[in-house]
Design a protein that fits this description.
The chain has helices at residues 9-12, 25-34, 55-62, 68-72, 94-104, 127-139, 142-147, 152-166, 216-234, 240-255, 333-336, 346-356, 362-377; strands at residues 19-20, 40-45, 48-54, 87-89, 112-117, 120-126, 172-174, 177-184, 192-200, 203-211, 261-269, 274-280, 286-289, 294-297, 317-320, 326-330, 386-393. It has 399 residues and is an alpha+beta fold.
């Protein structure tokens, strides 16, 4: 693939011949059973496009109920067609295809769509193929690493810089909130990332995520997650649970359950003195309450990691976030960091550093945590990626 050109949808479409609208449902079932890779079939009658019948809709919607097969077995397939199937012009590029897909199907319920030339459906595009193509275009790494091995170091270094550039700069101040964040890679390409988003003048969103593993594949997943998050934010989504659901679909479409990601999202609403949190299998956040000068773990519904189950939901949990309070989001790399004897840094040491640094601001506390973890391990880097994000409300703190 040439990354300087954007492929058209027809380039990633699977050519699929049409079936007649009069074909019986049992014969259509046989077509799908004979070809396990077949996602959908165009339906035509006398050269006129009538719609699409997809494997998912046929088996899991129309024929899933008791006696459905007996009811429809000898009926024509046109009885089960979607009145407005998802189709796009074959000449559109993949970015146009993604934009239209998210407009027509923001929850990504369809696993494929048809591509049209004039009035005929000439192929089927799998949503997974579309997402993977776009992910590869964005990073420009996978094919380069496979085909141009002699340029691996140059390309990986380029990817590291791009990935670093995608991280928002901190310290950041917004709506009486100061946010400090840092990420230490264990390899050139990180499986961790953090992000900040500002949905309103008195609110701020915080995210920390951790892909299982690191390296190029993990970097592709973080890119897909970042792109999915931005698409959801552009569409007006701001609630942590809703955002996690959307990123989950993007990762499933990209990684196909080969890699998973844990994530934690917090939405600070300064005018309400609240923070709303939702977790996807991520370590619990820690909250500092200025009223008593203590750090404590915020226990959440842990939720499934992203990329595990397309039907996963992510409950939200709201806690007070008053002036002087702080919230700490982190990846498990710092807790699991080991010294030369194989002893982990652990939650007890982690909590002790938080207690010792309770009078510090967000940036200074972040640097203290990194410094203590490095001192414990005796190394500047860690076996796993380490990410820390600390948000602090302006106000008097009682220590």
């Amino acid at each position: 693939m040439n990354y300087h050109t954007i492929p058209q949808l027809q380039a990633i479409a699977h050519a699929t011949g049409p079936i007649a609208g009069t074909m019986t449902v049992n014969n259509v079932i046989e077509c799908f059973q004979q070809d396990a890779s077949l996602l959908a079939l165009p339906v035509e009658t006398d050269g006129r496009f009538e719609g699409l019948t997809s494997r998912r809709d046929l088996f899991f919607q129309h024929l899933a109920k008791p006696f459905a097969r007996d009811l429809y077995y000898r009926k024509p397939i046109r009885m089960l067609l979607d009145a407005s199937p998802l189709t796009m012009p074959a000449g559109w590029n993949v970015h146009q295809g993604l934009e239209e897909l998210l407009r027509r199907d923001p929850s990504l319920e369809n696993d494929c769509f048809g591509v049209m030339e004039a009035e005929r459906c000439v192929g089927i595009v799998a949503v997974a193929d579309l997402m993977m193509t776009i992910s590869r275009i964005q990073t420009g790494l996978l094919e380069t690493l496979e085909q141009l091995t002699q340029r691996i170091r140059t390309e990986v270094e380029m990817a590291r810089r791009i990935q670093a550039d995608l991280l928002p700069p901190t310290p950041m101040q917004h709506a009486g909130l100061t946010v400090a964040a840092g990420l230490v890679n264990s390899s050139e390409i990180s499986g961790d990332f953090y992000d900040l988003f500002l949905p309103g003048p008195a609110s701020a969103g915080l995210l920390v995520a951790d892909v299982t593993g690191h390296g190029v594949q993990a970097g592709l997943v973080t890119t897909a997650a970042k792109a999915g998050l931005q698409t959801l934010l552009d569409g007006g989504s701001t609630q942590p649970g809703e955002l996690l659901c959307g990123i989950n679909r993007a990762i499933l479409a990209t990684a196909r359950q080969q890699l998973m990601m844990t994530a934690l999202i917090g939405l600070v609403e300064a005018d309400a003195d609240l923070i709303t949190l939702a977790s996807a299998g991520h370590p619990y956040p820690w909250r500092y309450a200025a009223v008593d000068g203590r750090w404590s773990e915020v226990a959440l519904d842990p939720g499934f990691p992203l990329g595990f189950d397309e039907s996963a939901v992510y409950p939200e949990f709201t806690v007070p976030f008053l002036p002087g309070d702080r919230i700490l989001l982190f990846s498990d790399g710092i807790i699991e960091a080991e010294n030369g004897m194989g002893e982990p840094f652990g939650l007890q040491r982690f909590q002790q550093v938080l207690h010792e640094g309770r009078a510090l601001g967000a940036e200074s506390l972040k640097e203290l945590l990194f410094a203590e973890a490095r001192l414990f391990t005796g190394r500047a880097s860690f076996e796993d990626d380490v990410t820390l994000l600390i948000a602090e409300r302006e106000g008097n703190s009682i220590c």
